[in-house]
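Here's what a typical entry looks like (Autoinducer 2-binding protein LsrB):
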Amino acid sequence: MRRIVAHPLSLVLLFSALAFGAAGCTEKPAAGPSGDGAAAGTPARTASSGEKVTVYLLPKKKGVAYFSSCADGARKAADELGNVELVYDGPTDGSPEKAAAMVEQWTLKKADVIAVAPNDPNVLAPAMQAARAKGTHVITWDADGVPDSRELFVNQATAEKIGYALVDTMAKDLGGENASGKVAIITATLTAANQNEWIKHMKERLKKYPKLELVTIKPSEEDQKLAFQVAQDLMKTYPDLKGIFGISSVAFPGAAEAVKQAGKSGKVLVTGLSTPNNMKTYVEDGTVKSVVLWNTQDLGYLTIRVAEALATGKLKTGATAFEAGRLGSKKIAGDNVLLGDILVFNKDNINNYNF
């Protein structure tokens, strides 16, 4: 169990909130495009025409190729818009407690928008809720948070689409509808809300392939070396293992390297989610047949477009579509802005992509 230690900034926010409440504030909470109310406090700020919009982009873990690619797309959107001051930062060890402390710091700096990819939604929720109470817009991207901690979720694709695509790809590469054998999942962390949703739909989809048996789910803590070790252990524990799903951008290459070094390329199939640049060598040498993902640069780009529109009041309550610059019109389903495109990279097309 993760022990949560109060950060000094948390105490500052707590005392500020208590003082604010004691003063008898009666303002209504801010309402996002979905109509949900933020925690009672200052209404969310709206930037005036020509005013700079400060957006803080928080990844689950800084230094990971997946999130670096998202940041590249975010910078392109900021440059294109011209009125966005973008800060990209996050914990290099993936610590949700450190991420929460960053949200608290940015709130004190009166950020216009904080865009969070939460590693542990429950740990980050208090800081995100406090930010909203202070008038900062808070959105999530890549992974969702506790619903009342954010206004919108910039979602790369529905959890169902991702979960189904992972299973269908593995089954196809193992022989189609008659695919058989034991398979395992290496996830990021057991508290990663988005990956737990994907796993739920993966289990549903596996019913379509009754000869595929899911034997275990193991975390890799967003650490490629640990994913490598976990994959080695899985192959020892299940000598007849046929497939490994690596469902984070570091779990997948870690598992692929373990299979390659074990001399089991072609015998133990690895598939999952990662950037094409991370997986090209494994696709070319036959360790991996297919890589499932979305355009990570587009995800970062869309996140900044949404953040700017929210901060300037251009994104209105009840909208069902959003004009996202070069991406065109994107669907809004409830409080989810959907990027919506799953990509499958293989030997035929992987060299056409560079991210």
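Confidence is low (pLDDT under 50) at residues 1-38.

More examples are in the samples folder.
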